[in-house]
Specification:
Layout: H1 2-13, E1 18-21, H2 23-33, H3 35-55, E2 61-71, E3 76-91, H4 94-160, H5 166-201, E4 208-211, H6 226-236, H7 238-258, E5 264-270, E6 274-279, H8 287-349, H9 356-390
Helix pairs in contact: 2-4, 2-5, 3-4, 4-5, 4-7, 4-9, 6-8, 7-8, 8-9
Length: 400
């Protein structure tokens, strides 16, 4: 007895703590630990520096040079050293475009970071919904497997007494094995989803976690009229805005290429001479090829933008029908759960040993009805979360 008590104490001392997470905590951890977010932040910092440098185009560059010359007539060697400071005061068209292009690259990276925040929230909602659904599915399959095993075991006992055939035993065993496999699949998917949450939040895989349910209050409410949300999406959708910046960058590149004569004014100060220097290219034989190349890339980006806009319109025009369908499925799930609860109460009141199978079936039906109700609610949440993300808004708004 003392040894068993010691083992119990030893096991409790080294048992791993279970961490309970809600969707907000996972998002908070993801903002700190997600590698893609960290990469984009560093990229934005680099592009911000590049933008500041483009604005300070006048910063001087210092050149140092030396020459060693031999005079054959005088049979003498002469060493010349020179230090030159060059500052570009202005370059027609190119200076302005260079600053604008740098700003476009920075703004594009910032939009990508914003979209990644939105995608993180949408993925967290999806993973939390999947985790809870697989957890409930495991409960359903566990009950179904228990019923199938009892029936299989009873059949084996009857066979030993000569009251059942191999056909019946093998049939019930195949049902039991099927339910067992379905249980293992549900458990596998539940644990796989938890691992995805750990990866997203930067939590070690060895850590034991459990996730809280998503808030499901008033999931069938109309958050915002669909036409208004579509208008908002056409103005604020991140993918559209990124494509607009891409088109704008090609337009700036085309301006630079077309402007062949682009005078550059520089200030040159050296140890032997100083002054202003004005230079300009006067002819570029490959100019038209460059213009055609950039114009094709611009048209490609415009076509992609039109495709994104068409997809958005399709999603938002079909959304009201999907919303009505999911609301109908929610009403159906509520009715089924209500009936399953009443049926379970009735069966429990009539419970006798010979009706054990019936009660087990009813309990499994009740669990499945709860799962379907949970699924109907989560599908409505995911619909609104997706629509909000397409409109450039935070998907978490649907949970608040």
């Amino acid at each position: 007895m003392i040894f068993l008590a010691f083992l119990l104490f030893f096991g409790m001392s080294f048992s791993q703590e279970i961490i309970t997470l809600d969707y907000k905590k996972v998002y908070e951890l993801a903002l700190k630990n997600n590698k893609e977010l960290q990469r984009l932040r560093h990229q934005i910092n680099a592009l911000e520096i590049d933008y500041q440098l483009a604005q300070k185009y006048y910063l001087p560059i210092v050149y140092a040079g030396a020459s060693l010359l031999y005079d054959f007539d005088k049979k003498d060697t002469k060493l010349d050293a020179n230090l030159t400071v060059v500052s570009t005061l202005y370059e027609f068209q190119r200076t302005k475009s260079r600053i604008e292009l740098s700003k476009i690259r920075r703004d594009t990276a910032q939009l990508m970071l914003k979209q990644l925040h939105i995608d993180l929230q949408l993925r967290i909602i999806r993973l939390f919904a999947e985790a809870q659904l697989y957890k409930k599915l495991s409960e359903v399959k566990r009950e179904e497997m228990a019923i199938a095993y009892v029936r299989f075991d009873r059949a084996r006992e009857k066979k030993e007494l000569g009251l059942a055939t191999d056909h019946e035993v093998f049939r019930l065993e195949s049902v039991y094995r099927e339910k067992r496999s379905e249980l293992f699949y549900a458990q596998h998917m539940y644990n796989h989803t938890l691992l995805q949450i750990k990866e997203l939040a930067g939590i070690p895989y060895e850590t034991i976690i459990q996730v809280e349910d998503l808030p499901t209050r008033e999931v069938d409410r109309l958050i915002k009229p669909f036409p208004e949300l579509l208008k908002e999406a056409l103005e604020k959708n991140t993918s559209l805005r990124i494509k607009d910046l891409e088109v704008k960058s090609y337009e700036e590149d085309i301006k630079v290429v077309r402007q062949v004569i682009s005078p550059r004014l520089s200030l040159r100060i050296s140890t032997d001479k100083s002054g202003l220097e004005l230079s300009t290219p006067i002819y570029d034989a490959g100019r038209q090829y460059k213009v055609d190349y950039l114009a094709s890339l611009k048209r490609s980006a415009q076509s992609e933008r039109e495709g994104i806009e068409a997809s958005l319109r399709l999603m938002f025009f079909s959304a009201p029908y999907e919303w009505e369908y999911l609301r109908a499925k929610l009403t159906e799930a509520i009715a089924k759960d209500r009936f399953a609860e009443e049926n379970l109460t009735l069966r429990r009141s009539e419970y006798e040993l010979e009706l054990a199978f019936d009660l087990g079936y009813v309990m499994a039906e009740k669990s499945e009805a709860e799962r379907q109700l949970m699924e109907a609610r989560y599908k409505l949440i995911l619909l609104w979360a997706k629509l909000l993300s397409l409109a450039g808004r935070e998907p978490f708004e649907v949970l608040e």
